[in-house]
Structures are given as structure tokens and as C-alpha cells.
Design goal:
Layout: H1 2-20, H2 25-50, H3 52-69, H4 71-81, H5 83-86, H6 89-93, H7 97-108, H8 117-143, H9 155-176, H10 178-189, H11 199-210, H12 219-247, H13 253-284, H14 298-309, H15 318-349
Solcar repeats: 50-141, 157-243, 252-342
Membrane topology: Multi-pass membrane protein
Organism: Rhodamnia argentea
Length: 350
């Protein structure tokens, strides 16, 4: 990967300059930029070797594996997030992860933890494929902006590029696959009453009862949460991995990706959870013929939640979200990096 190679060479170059006593900070910075350019070219060559389709496949499979592993916690998160819509405060105070998990097993069976997982995979495959692939493309475009080239290798510049590229990638992927995300949420939120019988039935029912725009209900809140979430996730991941590789260059790439991905998921989830909560509730408005609860926009909905449920209501379901996101994002990055290395090896042998 670009980041790993770049960090290793930059640190080595920096050590030479310091130990010799003849190099200046400017010389070290110049060497770092040249090494960064060289390593980026190597990364682009590696991506060209595995091809666009295998790269898309690696991203899609990584997302599907991650979501399947964390599906039970994902469903618990959704159920906690929507409790404030239909339950009174006394009921919500008694809620706990163990209590809700026990209720699911008792009333719906163990398989119910993966309710809606098929549509999750159907959504995550294209979403994750587009997300990872378009992120790399956005990074290339951002590096080509006039004036940025001279700052290549600078930590602040790279962090900014990762943040902006991640945000744009998240918005692109979320918009392209949003109807499947909406259906996934509604299927996962069903408990005893089954209103939607599957993916296609849900799509047809929503279109018939709420119109085509119903498939994009909550898109604004989604983009507001996904853009900073993915931006934070990619930028934190790349920065942490760069720092890790600079101090421990011999550690396995897969293990480093798992650890850094987990920490990046924790950071992004904490920062954007209230917007994700609004997104879920907006998606579920009108589901099953229920009346609308939130008559205002995103910020009005946030005020409504704080007024009726308190500030803690904005983080309802954050604990199972941590349980889900921390390993989930780590598994996603780990699987993606492992598949890219595997596909690159296969391509080189052909």
C-alpha cells in the first residue's frame, strides 16, 4: 500500500539526515515528497495490475463479510435507535442490550438476529465496492489540483486529501445505493408484525404507498452523517496506519489494518451517531402505515429528540453501535487489504 511504503522510506530518509548532521529540515521534507510520489506511482501500478473489477470485488466482499459478522449487533442498534419513536419513557428506561437480545431469541428465534441481512449484503456489496474504489479515484483527482503537488508528502496535506476524498466517496456510494439502505433498515426494524416480506416486496410497497421519493426518505440526514463518518474513518485509518508503520514497520499488514480500522470506526461513530439516529428514524417514518412523528427537518428532529428524551436520547443505541462498528470497520479494512494483496499475487502469477 502507498501509505506503508511511503512511511517506511520517509522515516529512513529522515534518520539519515539527522544522523549525518549535514541535512536540513527542508532537505528531509523534499526527500519525503519525492518518496511519496514514487510510492504513489507504485500503488497505482499495483491497482492497475489487479484491475478495476477485482478492486471493486475486494471492496464489495470486504463490506459483505464485515456486515455479516456484526449483523446481530447492527439489528440491536437499529431497535434501540427507534425505541423513542413508539415507546414511552418508562419502557425505554428498562431497556438493555441483554433484555432486548433475550426478547429477540424468545419471540423471534436466533435467526432473527440476521433479519434483513440479505438486503444488507445486497446493499453493502455495491456500496462498499463504490466506496473503496471511488475513494482511490478521488484521491488521484485531489492530488492533481494545482498547488497540491508541491505539498505532496506533507502530513497535513495528506490528511486533508484523505478527509475530503473519504467524504466525497461516502456521499457518492450512499446516494447510489440508498433505496437498499432504506429497505434494510425497515426489514431490520420489524419485530412481531411482518409488514414487508422481502426486498422486492418492500421496494414495491414503499413505491406504491409513499411514491418514488419514499425510497429516498432520510437521504439528507444520511448524507450529513455518512460524509463526515467516512471522511473521519478514512483519514483516521490512514493516519494511524502511517504512524504505526513508521514505528513498527515489521508488523503484519493485516493485523495493522484490523487495529487501525477498529479505532477509526470508534472515532467516526462517536462523532456522527446523533445524525445516524435521525437518519434511521426518518427512514422508518410512515413504515407499516404509521403516522408521521417528526414534522420538521433534520435539526428540528434533533431538537424534538432532546426535548422528549434528553441529550442522552441522541446516543440511544451507541453501546451496541460500538460493539458493531469497532470490529466491523476493522474487519472491513482488514479484508479489503488482504483481498487486494491476494488478487495482486494472483495477477502477478498469471
Amino acid at each position: 500500500m502507498q501509505t506503508e511504503a511511503r512511511v517506511g522510506v520517509v522515516v529512513e530518509g529522515g534518520q539519515r539526515g539527522i544522523s549525518s548532521g549535514h541535512g536540513s529540515l527542508a532537505a528531509v521534507d523534499g526527500a519525503a515528497r519525492r518518496c511519496s510520489q514514487k510510492c504513489q506511482q507504485q500503488q497505482q501500478q499495483q491497482q492497475a495490475q489487479i484491475g478495476t473489477v477485482p478492486q471493486l470485488l475486494a471492496g464489495g466482499v470486504a463490506g459483505a463479510v464485515s456486515k455479516t459478522c456484526t449483523a446481530p449487533l447492527a439489528r440491536l442498534t437499529i431497535l434501540f435507535q427507534v425505541q423513542g419513536m413508539h415507546y414511552d419513557l418508562a419502557t425505554m428506561k428498562k431497556a438493555s442490550i441483554w433484555h432486548e437480545a433475550s426478547r429477540i431469541v424468545r419471540e423471534e428465534g436466533y435467526r432473527a438476529f440476521w433479519k434483513g441481512n440479505l438486503v444488507t449484503i445486497a446493499h453493502r456489496l455495491p456500496y462498499s465496492s463504490v466506496n473503496f474504489y471511488i475513494y482511490e479515484q478521488y484521491k488521484k483527482v485531489l492530488h492533481m489540483i494545482p498547488g497540491v503537488e508541491s505539498y505532496r508528502g506533507n502530513m497535513s496535506t495528506e490528511l486533508c486529501i484523505h478527509f475530503v476524498g473519504g467524504g466525497l466517496a461516502g456521499m457518492t456510494a450512499a446516494t447510489a445505493t440508498y433505496p437498499l439502505d432504506l429497505v434494510r433498515t425497515r426489514l431490520a426494524a420489524q419485530t412481531n408484525v411482518i409488514y414487508y416480506r422481502g426486498i422486492w416486496h418492500a421496494l414495491r410497497t414503499i413505491t406504491r404507498e409513499e411514491g418514488w421519493l419514499g425510497l429516498y426518505k432520510g437521504l439528507g440526514a444520511t448524507l450529513l452523517s455518512v460524509c463526515p463518518s467516512i471522511a473521519i474513518s478514512f483519514s483516521v485509518y490512514e493516519t494511524l496506519r502511517s504512524s504505526w508503520q513508521s514505528h513498527r514497520p515489521d508488523d503484519p499488514t493485516v493485523a495493522v489494518s484490523l487495529a487501525c480500522g477498529s479505532l477509526s470506526g470508534f472515532a467516526s461513530s462517536t462523532a456522527t451517531f446523533p445524525l445516524d439516529l435521525v437518519r434511521r428514524r426518518k427512514q422508518l417514518e410512515g413504515a407499516g402505515g404509521r403516522a408521521r412523528i417528526y414534522q420538521t427537518g433534520i435539526f428540528g428532529t434533533l431538537k424534538h429528540i432532546v426535548r422528549n428524551e434528553g441529550f442522552r436520547g441522541l446516543y440511544r443505541g451507541i453501546l451496541p453501535e460500538y460493539y458493531k462498528v469497532v470490529p466491523g470497520v476493522g474487519i472491513c479494512f482488514m479484508t479489503y487489504e488482504a483481498l487486494k494483496m491476494l488478487l495482486a499475487d494472483i495477477a502477478s502469477d498469471l
